[in-house]
Amino acid sequence: MVQYSHPEIARKKLVERILPKAGVRDVRILAAFAAVPRHLFVEEAFQSRAYEDTSLPIGFGQTISQPSTLAAILQVLELSEKDRVLEIGGGSGYQTALLAHLAQRVFSMERVAPLSKLAWRRLDRLGLSNVALRIGDGTYGWPEQGPFEAIVVSAMSPRVPDYLIAQLRVGGRMVIPLGDSRSQRLVKVIRRPSGVDRVDLAACQFVPLIGRFGWEKKSPAREGETGGMDS
Ligand code: SAH
């Protein structure tokens, strides 16, 4: 295996220059980025680019998000050390590791078994013991472990799955990319005593959420399905 020679220096630059320049000021979030070696979560051929502010392939046609996007998501999730978080689309496990530094427990679901197994090995190697992984369709959520203070969906959905809203505590926050193959928006959903509030955050680009309450096929080209929800 080719060793990437000075990952710490590149990581320091990401934390001290690139992320602050992109507007990330929260010291807890910056500390999480400093603590998690992103180069261990990407395909070996891309390790030397791991600390650039760019998305990268993680295998199986999936990608790891760019650090500034992840930081913005973590910021709007407003996590505290007491929070239990549900992550849908754990992928490489990188965001899972960041969440593990910011919350009390992380429950992470991934539909592609080999990706989840790889993620598990990495998280175990980093000694992150407050994480549980499950292989399966995350559009059903993980009801046995809910309700959650925060839910983060890392794949683009045509709608907010009702099962996920039901597993969000009142006052809880969810971030989810909504849209179709033509356009997507990152949306924050806040559970209220009756119903939900929705805040539009930004344009974004995520791989499709494939599952019972997401996209049913690999190409989410259906028309007129954008953003439907129970409101
Ligand atoms: N946050 C991840 C990014 C993963 S990309 C990281 O840091 O690496 C999105 C992931 O969502 C992919 O791994 C994909 O397999 C997964 N995914 C898509 N639909 C899913 C579903 N219904 N349930 C669980 N995972 C899903």
Strand content: 15-25%
User: How many individual β-strands?
Assistant: 9
Report the CATH architecture: 3-Layer(aba) Sandwich
Morphology call: globular
Q: What is the spatial order of strands in the main beta sheet?
A: 5-4-3-6-7-8-9
Tell me briefly what this model is.
With 231 residues, this protein is of the alpha/beta class. It has helices at residues 7-21, 27-35, 67-77, 94-102, 113-125, 162-166; strands at residues 56-59, 62-64, 84-88, 105-110, 131-135, 148-153, 168-179, 184-191, 196-203. Strand 1 and strand 2 (62-64) form a beta hairpin.
Written account of the structure:
There is one protein chain. The protein has 231 residues and is of the alpha/beta class. The protein has a single domain (53-230), classed as 3-Layer(aba) Sandwich (Rossmann fold), CATH 3.40.50.150. The protein has helices at residues 7-21, 27-35, 67-77, 94-102, 113-125, 162-166; strands at 56-59, 62-64, 84-88, 105-110, 131-135, 148-153, 168-179, 184-191, 196-203. A seven-stranded mixed beta sheet has the order 5-4-3-6-7-8-9. A hairpin with a 2-residue loop joins strand 1 and strand 2 (62-64). The chain is globular. Residues 221-231 have low confidence and may be disordered. The site of S-adenosyl-L-homocysteine has 26 residues, from strand 2, helix 4 and strand 4.
